[in-house]
Specification:
transmembrane helix; transferase; disordered N terminus; 1036 residues; glycosyltransferase activity; 8-stranded mixed beta sheet; membrane
């Protein structure tokens, strides 16, 4: 049986008469809607390659020899008990025979794997890699014990393949609503709009339609993690496969089986490139989540060790309730010839099958095989030999209506030869119809079903217990009151049976996969979730209005992306699935002998005409022009050839302009966020991620330090600034210079056209000056949270750096964490103060943390500012020494692999980035630079922290230009002499090493070369005078 209902069709019995008589019953075929139905167009020769991917449920079967469902309508109590005795006999015999003869069912090629790797009842999907990873990263308790100055909730992005109202949307809406209760903030990006949009907006989720043109224009780094709900959203995932988004955690939920059904066809046709394409996409996901344990086995060819199962889906309950509202039980029984007082018992079982034969089918073969071979002449003969009335045993193939069969059944007997890993979905659907069930005492069943309350559970090794189970449900040939009570309780249980497990499963998965930065509040305890049911109230109208036909493709959804990819990457001939049609098509396309003769004749004619034209051209006189014109044309042709670093229009327009803003980026994923034109120029931190056909600056070429990925990661955008400052005259000869991170565009704080015009006018009026213009505020975070104006500068620094930026965060931490005595036991270091103290060699009793005002003004962020070029070089001088001191503190710490300026793995990887991002504010404030804020949208200009109000607060003595130059020369002298304070000294690698001694040595070198030249010239003249020099005559 299957999970889905079907379109209207007939309910066929085993014989032809029964089939013809039931043609108008209104039952629905399920053959075309089973998750495990194999493509009917695959040739028999290819079936062997198919079978290794066909692990599935017993009711998910569509073969030339279909699996049968036994339904027994018995007339009278004696016949019913006789049936029970037969079931007991078959079940007991199966357990004995199966142990010794099961391997004969399988092919010889797989016999060894079955014997060695498959024990009876132990077929299971075990994501051991994911479990091991979660055990290593199960650090939520540790994180909750650490001090955290979070100010915003964790953000999740949810990408939806479509927005239909179906059971899959019910699962996601339930999970999302519970995640909101834990403190997560979600934003939905839908590939296409749909009827479910109102539901998402009702539960308070912001919805944005993500067209194909916008895939690359979303800054995914704004989110702590991304969840994708279907294969249909694969194109959106491609944007997450490029830097700088490769490190964003991705959870891909796969609920369709369309791609799984196509994978065997790819193997048969040799479309390895398609398999590799999908495997690359699957490998990008940190976790690929499936709703049941059968799908991972179907997708096993794409498994890269990241498959995981979170069981739970309301699809069976949805299907049963929808079917019950559109079909009548008495009418269905009447149409099938079952009387009102007849007792119908359905025997179902098994969860998977191997090599086209399930365990239950193997049991039936071994138990009933000899009896059927010896006596059976048809279905009625089977009933006669079993001692039952004719027509009391009916066989229903898998192409029948599952919901219709269940609705006419009185009792479901579940007998499985193995312990299922997940709760049998057929039992869930039967319980949803209100049918009492009898099942063995497998752990998965006992976990949810209470014996005697929701169903009857019997010991699997005691078949005689079945007699007792049936006697409890039958009274005088009818269902007892106890049976009705059990069916009612079972129906209530089935409605929300796996909801709580599904919700908590996703909550725990997020805790193990996501990395929570320092400024993020941790999600609430999972134990706070009291809701253990699906959000039926949001979809109840859909269940009442939609018939079962709407559920036809509930597991298929729209997976057009699978077929579109096939069409784009395969030839029209090979894309055909049916090998017979493929052979016919290939036969028609094979050229005949006549075709080859015609082709040869055409080629010879074309060759004759070509030779004739060449001979005529050779006889004609040509004027090639003068040599100067030929040379000029050749040079012009060389210039128009493609060059990797060819100048674009922007570089030509920048000629003569006073300002250039360098946009720093790392990876092709940031290209859509970059600007074009005369004002901007790209600055790439990696060679491979550099834009083609552009004049972007390659920071790695200008600063070899960035070849080391470790330093490139810990310095981030500042590394690009170091590369520009290194021999700046070779790259930048303008009076003003600016920088902007690619993230400014992603956070909607980049300069608008109006703001750009205002900035250009301001810098043209002031050719020089100690002023810094900035437009990205420190408290702007992409618009997903409120304003943080109440926070001070050093509080924000602590928030972004794991609470270890300054000592001033102690009071703030007590207010945020509400931890009370816990604060007294927390050791919070002032990394900024320690670095400042070591940089200037300050004694321990002197305050080393520069004061920053709390006047409510704005501070710069995202490296988005403009200043004069001399000021920039001075700032770089200060930044190089500060970064070197930070690195020295890190090297001298007890654990050099750990970073005190971050809590998450990504923050530790980019250890110095957040402190260096804020460093420009400290330098500009205490060096008496005017700080002017330009509104990025309106272009309004406002000065913040006026210089007049800073008097008495600025530490100008530490930021004096003369002092900084003196310190820089001291470091350069030490580096020039090879006097390194430690082995990995960062400062000499971040820019020029220049001091007075270098200048004198270069001057001496130039003087020495000059004197050598004079000496050689003088020696040459003396040689001529000594030996004489006579000019030769013309005749020689």
């Amino acid at each position: 049986m299957g999970r889905n209902s079907a379109s209207p069709d007939h309910l066929s019995s085993g014989d032809g008469n029964a089939k013809s008589n039931s043609g108008g019953l209104g039952f629905n075929s399920i053959r075309d809607r089973f998750r495990f139905k194999r493509n009917p167009n695959v040739a028999k020769s290819a079936s062997a390659c198919d079978r290794q991917y066909r692990a599935t449920r017993s009711h998910h079967l569509a073969r030339s020899v279909p699996r049968k469902l036994l339904v027994f309508p018995s007339r009278g109590r004696s016949l019913f008990y006789l049936l029970i005795l037969f079931a007991l006999f078959a079940f007991a015999l199966a357990s004995v025979v199966l142990q010794s003869s099961i391997t004969s069912v399988f092919r010889q090629g797989s016999e060894r794997s079955v014997r060695e790797g498959f024990k009876f009842g132990t077929l299971r999907f075990v994501p051991w890699r994911m479990r091991r990873r979660f055990e290593l990263q199960g650090r939520m308790d540790h994180l909750r014990r650490q001090p955290r100055l979070g100010v915003r909730p964790p953000r999740l992005g949810l990408i939806l393949g479509n927005m239909k109202k179906d059971p899959l949307s019910l699962v996601l809406s339930t999970v999302v609503k519970n995640l909101q209760e834990l403190g997560y903030m979600l934003k939905i990006y839908a590939i296409e709009d749909g009827e479910a949009r109102s539901i998402w907006e009702k539960i308070g989720v912001q919805v944005s339609i993500l067209s194909s043109e916008r895939y690359g224009h979303i800054d995914w780094s704004l989110f702590e993690g991304i969840m994708v709900d279907s294969v249909e959203a694969k194109d959106a995932i491609l944007s997450l496969m490029q830097e700088p988004f490769c490190s964003v955690p991705l959870i891909w939920i796969i609920q369709e089986d369309t791609l799984a059904n196509r994978l065997p066809i790819y193997l048969v046709n040799g479309w390895d490139h398609l398999i590799s394409h999908w495997r690359d996409a699957f490998s990008r996901a940190d976790v690929v989540v499936f709703p049941d344990f059968s799908l991972p086995m179907l997708y096993s060819v794409l498994d890269t060790g990241n498959f995981f199962v979170i069981p739970g889906s309301p699809v069976d309950v949805w299907s049963a309730e929808s079917y019950s509202k559109t079909h009548s039980r008495p009418l269905l029984r009447k149409d099938t010839g079952i009387g009102k007082d007849d007792m119908v018992v359905a025997i179902v079982g098994t969860s998977f099958f191997l090599n086209e034969l399930s365990w239950d089918y193997a049991v039936a073969m071994h138990v009933l095989g000899p009896l059927l071979v010896k006596y059976a002449r048809g279905e009625n003969d089977v009933a006669t030999h079993l001692g039952l009335l004719r027509d009391s045993v009916r066989h229903y193939g898998l192409n029948e209506d599952v919901n219709g069969l269940l609705l006419i059944t009185d009792i479901i007997l579940y007998v499985s030869s193995q312990d299922d890993q997940g709760f049998p979905p057929l039992l869930t659907r039967a319980m949803s119809f209100g049918i009492p069930v009898i099942a063995p005492d497998y752990p998965i069943i006992e976990r949810y079903v209470v014996d005697g309350v929701h169903g009857i559970i019997f010991p699997k090794h005691k078949p005689e217990a079945l007699m007792t189970a049936f006697s409890l449900l039958i009274s005088e040939g009818k269902l007892s009151n106890f049976a009705h009570s059990v069916s009612t309780s079972g129906r209530l249980l089935a409605k929300n049976m796996l909801a709580a497990e599904c919700i908590t499963g996703y909550a725990r998965l997020l805790e193990n996969v996501l990395a929570f930065p320092s400024d993020v509040l941790l999600p609430g305890q999972i134990s706070r979730l009291n809701q253990g049911q699906w959000e039926w109230n949001l979809f109840q109208k859909e269940i009442e209005l939609k018939s079962v036909d709407i559920l036809k493709d509930v597991h298929l959804r729209d997976s057009g992306v699978v077929y579109d990819l096939e069409e784009d990457n395969t030839s029209p001939v090979l894309v055909m699935d049916n090998p017979q049609n493929k052979t016919e098509s290939l036969t028609k396309d094979i050229p005949t002998e006549q075709d080859w003769d015609i082709l040869k004749e055409i080629e010879s004619t074309e060759e004759f005409e070509r030779l004739e034209i060449e001979e005529i051209e050779e006889r004609m006189e040509k004027n090639y022009g003068i040599w100067d014109e030929l040379y000029r044309n050749a040079r012009k042709a060389e210039k128009v050839k493609f060059e990797t670093n060819e100048r674009d229009e922007g570089e030509l327009e920048r000629t003569g302009q006073p300002l250039c803003i360098y946009e720093i980026y790392n990876g092709a994923g940031a290209w859509p966020f970059l600007h074009h034109g005369s004002l901007y120029r790209g600055l790439s931190l990696s060679k491979r991620g550099r834009r083609l056909k552009s004049d972007d600056v390659d920071a790695v070429d200008r600063l070899p330090l960035l070849n080391d990925t470790y330093y490139r990661d810990i310095l981030c955008e500042v590394g690009g600034m170091f590369s520009i400052a290194n021999r700046v005259d070779n790259i930048h000869r303008r009076p003003w210079i600016g920088f902007q991170s690619w993230r400014a565009e992603g956070k909607k704080v980049s300069l608008s056209a109006k703001a750009e015009q205002v900035l250009e006018e301001v810098v043209q009026e002031k050719t020089k000056g100690d002023v810094i213009y900035f437009w990205a505020r420190l408290d702007i975070d992409g618009g997903l949270t409120g304003s943080n104006d109440v926070l001070t500068f050093w509080s924000m620094c602590d928030i972004f750096n794991g609470g270890n930026c300054s000592f001033s965060s102690l009071g703030f931490a007590s207010n945020v964490l509400k931890a009370g005595p816990l604060i007294a036991r927390i050791t919070i270091r002032s990394i900024f103060g320690d670095a400042f103290r070591q940089m200037y060699a300050l004694p321990s009793h002197v305050e080393a943390l520069p004061p920053m005002p709390e006047d409510g003004g704005h501070w710069s962020a995202l490296h988005s500012w403009v200043m004069s070029t001399p000021s920039f070089l001075e700032f770089m001088m200060f930044t190089r020494m500060f970064a070197d001191t930070l690195d020295a503190l890190h090297m001298n710490s007890t654990n050099t692999t750990d970073c005190l300026l971050g809590l998450s793995k990504d923050e530790k990887k980019h250890c110095y980035c957040r402190v260096l991002e804020l460093l420009v504010n400290v330098w500009a404030y205490h060096s008496a630079r005017k700080m002017v804020y330009i509104d990025p949208h309106s272009g309004s200009v406002v000065e913040h922290h006026p210089v007049e109000q800073r008097k008495g607060y600025m530490w100008t003595k530490y930021f004096n230009t003369t002092l900084l130059k003196s310190m820089d020369e001291d470091l350069a002298e030490a580096a020039d002499d090879g006097d390194y304070p430690y082995e990995r000294w960062l400062w000499p690698l971040t820019g020029e090493v220049y001091w007075q001694g270098v200048y004198e040595r270069e001057r001496e070198e130039r003087y020495r070369l000059k004197m050598d030249k004079k000496r050689k010239t003088k020696e040459k003249l003396l040689e001529r005078l000594r030996n004489g020099y006579k000019q030769k005559t013309i005749s020689g």
